[in-house]
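Exercise: predict the fold of this chain.
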Amino acid sequence: MLTTAHTTASKASLLLLCAGLVVPLTAMADTASDPITLPALSASEAQNSVVGVSSGGYMALQLAIAWPERFSGVGVLAAGPWGCAQGSLSLALNQCMMTRSGDPSLSTLDARWARYAGEGQVGDEAARNDLRAYVWHGEADKVVEPVLGDLLAEQLRQWLADDGQLKVARSEETGHGWPVRLPSNSRTAPEALGGCRQGGGSHVLACDENIAGEMLNWLHPERRQSSFNTEGELLAFAQGEFDAKGLADTGYVYVPANCEAGECGVTVALHGCQMNVEAIGETFVRQTGLNAWADQHQQIVLYPQAESSMANPQGCWDWWGFAESTWQLSPLHDTREGEQVSALMAMLARLQASSLPER
């Protein structure tokens, strides 16, 4: 789920509380192991994607546009155009969740990207235009207006080299969150998840839609299903060494069987506000459908975790500049210099390394 920071009494917080935040801590009984050091797995540098929902969708865009040469694709659920908030909490609330102040201007955001590009703070145009992209929005979304998903799709159509690189999906009866199709042998009851139309709860929505599989099949069309049928392992790792404001102490990584041998791709998966492990247990890191696709296609899934704080009470990713705005008039949260962007890219680099750094 997506909301803002600075104060728990903000309009966004009130809106989301009224939407019904019921935390299903019993939705997943399994727990990952005690935190370890994030492993070096010699992961591929050519088969990587970044995906996210709501605030995580905005952050996924920030990573992909800052470092397009490091990703082959980006998937965005329930979010709007890249750069939308422009470092402003007011714009985040009034143009990037609701559109009370009018729609965000794509030409203004193009100028923002061009300024960053001229300063070397985002990837070059050719790399950006080569990305594959998947955009999904629920028509019944009451948290991030569906028109913002339309504007994101239009922004990407203007940027990508070919229309065939973009897939846009909409679900008429679906609210705010990440739709899932629970497997027949799931130990989680649909009632433990968010309601498909209403959203709410975990914001992992019991909609009988395998959005994760559809999205990753689109972002990685070259990948074929492997013959491995063994389930991988979800590991908790210490995020402290990737120091950045707003990161939780512990993150998660899903490692399919055989990926310890190297050359698996990586998908960075970013939760929305009130969707971290602190809020909903391991529902997001286990139930989105990403892990099942990862087992079938030999893809590591990295689940970094944001934390709740006074500056960020809903545990959102930094898509409006809270991690830097206390010391920077024009926060660079959506550039290569952004605190959280830098930390997340360091996690990806660790998975791609062949050995741990010397202490």
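Check your answer against the key: Confidence is low (pLDDT under 50) at residues 3-29.
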